[in-house]
Amino acid sequence: MEDNIICNCLNVSEHEIxxxxxxxxxxxxxxxxxxxxxxxxxxxxxxxxxEILKRELAK
Length: 59
Known about the structure:
Blueprint: E1 5-7, E2 12-13, H1 14-23, H2 29-36, H3 46-57
Antiparallel strand pairs: 1-2
């Protein structure tokens, strides 16, 4: 998996978001925001976070 930056405000990568889902039991966008900080800046990445969450939970 490429380590794409999803949240530019806080420099949070896709890998960090996936890790929060797989290893820290994040099951909602709010969980990911609380664990990684992603989405708590300008908020423009929240839709991307939601898509990653849906993809990973479907696996």
